Amino acid sequence: MSQTKPPAERTEKEWKDLLSPEEFRVLRKHGTERAGSSPLNHEKRHGVFVCAGCGKELFSSDAKYESGTGWPSFYQPVGEGAVTTHKDRSLFMVRTEVRCAQCDGHLGHVFPDGPQPTGLRYCMNGVAMNFEPEDE
């Protein structure tokens, strides 16, 4: 597989070759990891959370907080254009899905019950992200 191919243009086979089975299930098939299963829940260092599919910066550790949900939670993305949102009508309800703006990978959902200053809770699948600590 060519590493120069834009992430949005990768085939399903290329994604399967690039990602672990669990990353593929969540990022490409809109799955959800089991609550409390991600080591990123306990990540307390300063740094940035990036997309596991393409490496795009998504969330700063400064916006991370403990929501008690069992998934890494943030009150805002790193900036405009980091993520996109989409209506999700699965599971007989309407939710707002969050995807990586670069590779369109499924990250999780955003809810209006987070802390200030935004009042939002970006409830993300840890398997959909990697953590890059700040240089210390």
Can you give a write-up of this model?
- With 136 residues, the protein is mostly beta strands.
- The protein has one domain (10-133): Beta Complex (Metal Binding Protein, Guanine Nucleotide Exchange Factor, Chain A), CATH 2.170.150.20.
- It is built from two helices and nine strands.
- Strands 3-4-8-7-6-5 form a six-stranded antiparallel β-sheet, with no helix packed on it.
- The longest helix is centred in the first third of the chain and has 7 residues, at 12-18.
Features:
136 residues, Metal Binding Protein, Guanine Nucleotide Exchange Factor, Chain A, six-stranded antiparallel sheet, three-stranded antiparallel sheet, 2 helices, 29% strand, peptide-methionine (R)-S-oxide reductase activity, metal-binding, metal ion binding
- Could you please say which CATH topology applies here? Metal Binding Protein, Guanine Nucleotide Exchange Factor, Chain A
Q: State the secondary-structure class.
A: mainly beta
Mean pLDDT, rounded to whole units? Answer: 92
CATH architecture: Beta Complex
Major sheet description: 6 strands, antiparallel
CATH superfamily: Peptide methionine sulfoxide reductase
What's the CATH class label?
Answer: Mainly Beta
Q: Termini distance? A: 34 Å
Number of structural units classed as domains: 1
Q: Hey, roughly how much beta strand do the residues contain?
A: 25-35%
